[in-house]
């Protein structure tokens, strides 16, 4: 169950309100790299957690922390919007365009939310629940979390660069720090689970001898140029999971040309498609069945 | 630029067509864990690649391979649908319901595609371009790729369990093997880039002394119960990136209660909201400005 | 800021696990009538709240409670899925169809989440952030909340009818009770704000004499039949906001046929469209400008 | 069945075309607060109406009127776009940026629609059918309609503020007036149905003694601070539906820690998750079953 | 402006209600091939029509007719749902599954709409405004309309095959007839505009000598197999627009390997990406700029 | 199966980088008129192709070519973004707004992709798999393809007008030429299939005598004005498919007022809705069944 107090997890101060920056912050709220995503992702992973209980507890701890991050960012959006043009009409009077001020901000911050944050990204595209990944496999989930915190920290550093407002930089330096912790935290679980050699290939509970043994450690080059070969850690030497040896080959088809059967006449392809298979009688059959 | 031949990368054989399994395979085509996602993800990462050229080349190699995986799965869907009920009317005649056969398959495989694969998941939800992650930071992208191949291999093993068709199991054992390779491949890049200690925190080009130094390696417990402390690799000892020391604390607010300013009268909050700030004159000002 | 404990707000017990009911419960999690929507809606309204502080506080209280409702439902989904067929292959062996069991459940509960709840509705359509309404006008928001709790309680009673599992009925009777409270709660705010006569028309801060005075209390019949007139509380008598008198009329156009100007030649309509306005020279102008 | 004439419901005149305002008007066409939503919402409610026939008739009347509102706004968008820059190249020649004019407008008004309205909101996000609410419960639907007309009128007044074009202000003053009527109209139905005391809790056909009787009129504070209690009409006194007495309490968990069962081995969680439940034999069983 | 009467355009009769068929009919309401799409598409094309007025008038005529088609189908859905299981609990009592009946229908027809149509497709995926195509080019729009009526008629014939209910077959035979008319109608406009030779390439107002003259009538084979050449009407002979001569060639790259510049250091790629371009000083510059 | 080389299909050169143009190009990548759509559309049509094999082969050829078009455009986006403001902070220092430069570009090109293309349109709306049309009927599919290439060429000419960068104009003149070819190519298939008279009405395999014979070639005017009749090729003379004679009539309802049955009491409509049908006993029945 959940509780709150009225304070923010960390101070949010906006020295020079900036509606365009409010729009950019929306990416960290409702974007795929944003805080609604990690919040729901960690909570849903916790609620569906099967296996060692401590991971459930940890996910609840961090999922709950993330609600407070959405709160901080939503507050920052509202404060930045207080710098929106005092009078839209004045602005427009100068010129038939509503102007750069308007052009750069999200018009829905005026029209839909009345100067407050929304559950959308920096282009106004709504948050999408498909981004909430919880696979039931803890190792896959930890990588989903490392990925979320990595793109999240990249986003936060870009927002940090995009502002010279000291209050906003301070808030972002806190969020960047938390992303550092969370990257480390999910990686620590992977180490606890035995590290690369035990964890991979994910899922490690699938009997690996049931996978194709010829192609499971081969790098395929699909390049048709003569001198195309890429070389790297992934083309020779032991595989990262310690269970195979990397090699590299030019790709060649192992399968045949696919052959589909005739269309069911009741699906009403064009008759030329049906007749291609000697389908006259098929069409007659349909008529006969009426 | 891209080329093709008419053969499949690996053989696709369906011994006992099964429209319900066709629906399940759609998850591996148009779902968030599916092949359209990884195909476009690797290609977009290649096309926007800045830095060592070999990663661009490698991404092109594997992104191109993934087109062939979509092709294999789309072929498998079409072949499984050839087992759809020969006569919908006959089926329905038995009962006023179209029946379990129909209930379990995607009705759009009949209605929209005429017994062929679509760019949707197993519930008919369309593929969504937001899933195509390319951040411009190669380490973040590699984790996005490990995550995609991990949830992808989990999905493929579940599909493998869900069928006893030898042809389908054979095809899936190939795709599972390729996921093994690709997990290893992206991890190999992380090793080439210096491993956890060099790569993290991502992005490693942000001067880490600019992030908050108090909270960057602290695990926050948000649990209010007396005996709630979680312990793990992530609560003590050196951090995974070697740049800090894990510790754990109960969370406490570092910020204040947020205070937003009055609504702009032109945004037409209720007058009681405006007047709360002594806003009578604000409303008068609007009237005066008309 | 937010906190949690490990207990559920109310007991969740599943006596007879039922994967199909798990799917139905998803509507109450990730559907437009569901708990993620109200949770985020109340929290975003709180975070953007301007005006009397007590409404912010109240919204935080109830928004935080709703997280616990998602948690209860997610737990109920996971428990219901423990009744999923013990062996998919066995099930399929009976018949080439995976069967009614499979057909009725969400295949992604097997394929994507490994028997856990997801942020989607009962058809697997992802939660959509556009449903999170916070307009910056507290009266409009209260109606959005009454509406959410009304469709929410309708949904919960339908779920209650759809199960005869005593544990699920008990959990739903609790959620139904909370919806009763929340309907009353948002209506209480409308009363506090002065009731219908003060609150409407929303927004009450727009000078009502600026709206068209001829059509603001007229019911328009668009029916062309001779005997079509609808009569009701909305066709005569004082309006609900006490500021007008209802009347009813047959609709007649007050405007003219619209006339758009010629297409900009650079937008490349067909030349017949441009020439309709004597546009030959326009096309020449484009050529000349090359 | 439906008919039309060629005239607009009300005059649409644009004195000073403004492409940025065209973009803002899109919110009133294809946004969640917009006219496509109310049009389809009222028509779908009519088409599914069960119960007193006059509500079906009324919904058809107003749903049909709303088509004319979309038409007016679409015309306004097209007319405002006629002020788009006469020459994009000239504009761009000044500067490597296409400029404020371009920046502020929806680029798809040039690229996709050729200077005409689209079924999208002011950020180009497409209209979404999930917004069309018809629950089958007339009271819930009336609140959905009051909510739509309330956020709709808030939007229209904001658009009115955002323009000083006399033609646009005139058109908006008409639409604002219609929103006034429609708010009153749906509220009149609630009065006809017996008002708050008869209508609530919605649905009123669910036997209220089947809901939990302990928590159905209790306000839960989730705030953990000592001095956190909110007081208002919703914390004491008779409930709005007259069926209970409001009270307020600090929230406490009524449930237990959730306990999920072990993952099905065929779902391929990591083996550490399965073994946590003594699952070795489970994995062996899978292998044995191959 | 728009009007209605209370009657349906054509009779809608359901002899044997069938909830599964209700679900299938949703594809014709809210699917991409469905009636909401064509209705809005023709109306939006009308409202943005520039050029000969008669096309605007015609689009209004047919767009208005399509509203009546949605109405017919929505009525058919509601009537088919009256055959839904009289008691869900009874159904469930037989078995822990809610059963085939339930599995095959859209659960939201029970949970969300209370036995009425919704603005979604046969999988519950909401109608999406992006499907409403109006390009501002009348020839492109006519093809969009032919396409919509072609996939629409294919859908309607498949629905006709899927039912043996005489009432439903009668209604569908009417809708199939209207699709026949509408396919012919849009093709008639293309003939009026001068037929293939005048209309193509669309847009015909773009000076065709500005397009690349080497590749505008060449069929590219991307197949790398020796014997891969496809031959058809599209590989030799005069082009369909009469403005070129078809030929076929094996594709060869005309461009070079792309070379992107270094990442902006403020975008925080990994430092290895920046340093690849000799970027040490770039990172120093960032630090220096702090 | 698929292959690649490292070169582009055609040269991509950006003389004057322009982040706003980068945003506009996104429409041609991830928009409904864009290249991801045609690429996947042709490939999915190929993979589901039933009937003459040469069409499968041709679709593979052109679908593969389209991947190279995405590649060209993605490269063009990345190169145009190299002109983004060298320093966001410098830009912002001038003014509290980030400025027109920033306002006009897609902020996610900075925040999410680090100066690279994404799978979204010019408003940042993600590519949507529902746009990938493959109906299983080759004639319907050919019209879907003509439509895609027609709106695609309209888009490309608008982009051509929007830039005066010689490199971009050169690239676009190539893509415009390919759209010319592809329009002709799909039309050539329609001719091969026998032209309008054989192909229509689509599907031509549905026995046309089963469609309603009274209304299949009648133009319906829904206009209620006295002088409203539209005349054109579509109101008289032989139909385009040669199978009927066009005529035009004023529309009149052929159906009756719809009558739905009472709501199922377990769906919990308001009791006034149920009682309208004499439903008291229905509600009692629910209570009795508890």
From TrEMBL, chains A, B, C, D, E, F:
Its cofactor is Ca(2+); Mn(2+). Mn(2+) 2 binds at residue 66. Binds 1 Ca(2+) ion per subunit. Binds 2 manganese ions per subunit. InterPro entries: Ferritin-like, Ferritin-like_SF, Mn_catalase, Mn_catalase_dom. Residues 253-275 are annotated as: Disordered. One of its GO terms (molecular function) is metal ion binding. Mn(2+) 1 binds at residues 35, 69, 149, 182. SUPFAM superfamilies: Ferritin-like (SSF47240). Keywords: Calcium, Manganese, Metal-binding. Ca(2+) binds at residues 57, 61. Residues 265-274 have a biased composition (Basic and acidic residues). Belongs to the manganese catalase family. This is Catalase. It comes from Pontibacter qinzhouensis.
């Amino acid at each position: 169950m959940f509780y709150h107090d009225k304070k923010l997890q960390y101070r949010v101060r906006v020295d020079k309100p900036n509606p365009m920056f409010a729009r950019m912050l929306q990416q960290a709220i409702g974007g795929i790299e944003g805080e609604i995503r990690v919040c729901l992702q960690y909570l849903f992973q916790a609620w569906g957690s099967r296996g060692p209980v401590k991971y459930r507890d940890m996910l609840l701890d961090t999922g709950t922390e993330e609600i407070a991050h959405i709160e901080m960012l939503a507050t920052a959006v509202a404060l930045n919007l207080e710098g929106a043009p005092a009078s839209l009409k004045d602005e427009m009077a100068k010129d038939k365009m509503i102007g750069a001020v308007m052009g750069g901000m999200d018009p829905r911050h005026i029209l839909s939310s009345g100067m407050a944050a929304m559950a959308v990204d920096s282009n106004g595209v709504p948050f999408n629940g498909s981004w909430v990944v919880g696979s039931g496999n803890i190792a896959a989930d930890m990588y989903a979390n490392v990925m979320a915190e990595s793109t999240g920290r990249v986003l936060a550093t870009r927002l940090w660069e995009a502002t010279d407002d000291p209050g906003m930089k301070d808030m972002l330096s806190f969020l960047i720090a938390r992303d550092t912790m969370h990257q480390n935290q999910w990686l620590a679980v992977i180490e606890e689970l035995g590290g690369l050699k035990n964890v991979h290939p994910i899922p490690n509970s699938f009997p690996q001898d049931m996978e194709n043994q010829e192609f499971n450690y081969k790098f395929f080059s699909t390049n048709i140029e003569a001198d195309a070969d890429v070389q790297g850690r992934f083309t020779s030497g032991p595989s990262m999971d310690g269970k195979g040896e990397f090699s590299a080959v030019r790709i060649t088809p192992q399968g045949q040309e696919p052959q589909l059967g005739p269309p069911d006449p009741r699906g009403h392809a064009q008759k030329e498609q049906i007749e291609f298979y000697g389908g006259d009688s098929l069409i007659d059959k349909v008529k006969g069945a009426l």
